């Protein structure tokens, strides 16, 4: 059986005045992912138009790639950096792809 891709959607709600700090930590961590985590296929943040929140969209090649992502010292550093900046615990929802356009990458 082929490896099963893993999708997560994560909602981060920063405390008032902490949005930019959370974004900066996310961007620094994203650079590490881009350079070192080849099993992480999508890792992006969206900001709803009417809120200072972040919606993270993640796609991993398989469960081992997700485990490897969460085991890195950079993930732990990111978690420590944003934890005190959040108004509530992150809301994490696992999902599965059901259709649509995933991307047009030519990699």
TrEMBL record:
GO molecular function (one): monooxygenase activity
Domain called ABM: residue spans: 6-97
Keyword Oxidoreductase assigned: yes
PROSITE patterns in UniProt: ABM (PS51725)
SUPFAM superfamilies assigned: Dimeric alpha+beta barrel (SSF54909)
Keywords linked to the UniProt accession: Monooxygenase, Oxidoreductase
Matching Pfam families: ABM
Domain of life: Eukaryota
Keyword Magnesium (UniProt): no
InterPro entries on file: ABM_dom, Dimeric_a/b-barrel
Coiled-coil boundaries: none
Identification of the protein by name: Antibiotic biosynthesis monooxygenase
Annotated source species: Aspergillus heteromorphus CBS 117.55
Lineage: Eukaryota, Fungi, Dikarya, Ascomycota, Pezizomycotina
């Amino acid at each position: 059986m082929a490896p099963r891709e893993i999708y997560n959607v994560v909602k981060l709600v920063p405390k008032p005045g902490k949005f930019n700090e959370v974004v900066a930590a996310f961007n620094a961590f994203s650079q590490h992912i881009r350079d070192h985590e080849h099993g992480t296929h999508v890792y992006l943040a969206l900001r709803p138009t009417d809120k200072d929140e972040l919606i993270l969209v993640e796609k991993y090649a398989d469960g081992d790639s997700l485990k490897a992502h969460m085991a890195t010292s950079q993930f732990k550093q990111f978690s420590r950096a944003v934890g005190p900046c959040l108004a509530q615990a992150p809301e994490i929802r696992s999902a599965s792809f059901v259709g649509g356009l995933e991307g047009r990458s030519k990699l």
